[in-house]
Amino acid sequence: MPKKTRFCLMRHGETDWNAQGRIQGQIDIPLNRTGESQAMAAAQSLAAESFDAAYSSDLLRAWATAEAVAGEAVLAEAQLRERHYGTLQSLTMKEAKALHPEVYRRHVEWDLHFDLDGGESLAGFAKRAMAGLDSLARRHAGEKVLVVTHGGVLDIVYRTATGRSLAARRDFPIPNAALNWLERDETSWRVQLWADQRHLGVALDELPG
Questions:
Q1: Which of 14, 36, 72, 82 is labelled catalytic?
Q2: Exposure pattern of 106-143 as b/e (b: 16+ CB <10 Å)?
C-alpha cells in the first residue's frame, strides 16, 4: 500500500492589515490581538493531535501562529510564503484601482501570467506553493504534518485537490486560523475536512493575505 501523508493546513491568525482589507503579500505584518487569540484557540483545538513534523512560512504572522500550536518544533519553509503581489502590496483594493489601474485590471481579470509589476504571476506562485507542499509530502510519507501558511497557498492546494482551475472564481472559504485537513498519496491530493472553525468565533475570510 502506498504511504499517505496527512496534513493539517492552517492559515495564520488575523492581522490589522487583514482587518483593513490591505494586501500583505510578502510584507511581514504581525498578528493583532484577535490573531493571537485565534492562534491560542487553534492550539487548544489541536492539543490532542500528535504531529510528526510542523512547518511554517517564514513570515511573522504565520510563524507566530505556528509557534502557538507547535512551539519550538516548528521549522521554517520559505516555499510556504504568500504570493508576492508586486506593486499592489500594502494597498487596499480601492487604493490599488486608483493608483495602479492597469495592474489592478489584470489582477481582477485573473491574468495567470502577469507578475503584478514586480511580484509573482499566479501560475508561478501556484507552481512554487505546490512544489513546497509536495516536497513535504514526500519527506513525511506515512506521517501527519502541521503546516501554517497563507490564504493564497491554501487557495492553490484546494484547487489542486478538487480539480478547480486557477482561472475560476473562488467559491470556497479560507478563514483565518481555520483547520484544513488534506491527504496526499503518491498521485494526488484529497480534501478530508475544510475550513473547520469550530474553535473560533468570527474569522475573516478576505484574500489576498
A1: 82
A2: bbeeebeebbbeebbbbeebbebbbebbbebbeebeeb
pTM of the model: 0.94
Whether 82 is catalytic is: yes
| End-to-end CA gap in the chain | 38
Q: One of 12, 84, 140, 150 is an active-site residue; which one?
A: 12
pLDDT in tens, 111-168: 999 999 999 999 999 999 999 999 999 999 999 999 999 999 999 999 999 999 998 9
- For all residues of the chain together, what is the average pLDDT? 94
According to the 3-state scheme, what is the secondary structure of the chain?
CCCCEEEEEEECCCEHHHHHCECCCCCCCCECHHHHHHHHHHHHHCCCCCCCEEEECCCHHHHHHHHHHHHHHEEECHHHCCCCCHHHCCCEHHHHHHHCHHHHHHHHCCCCCCCCCCCCCHHHHHHHHHHHHHHHHHHCCCCEEEEEECHHHHHHHHHHHHCCCCCCCCCCCCCCCCEEEEEECCCCEEEEEEEECCCCCCCCCCCCC
- All structural domains of the chain: 5-85+122-196 (3.40.50.1240)
- Please indicate whether residue 140 is annotated as part of the active site: no
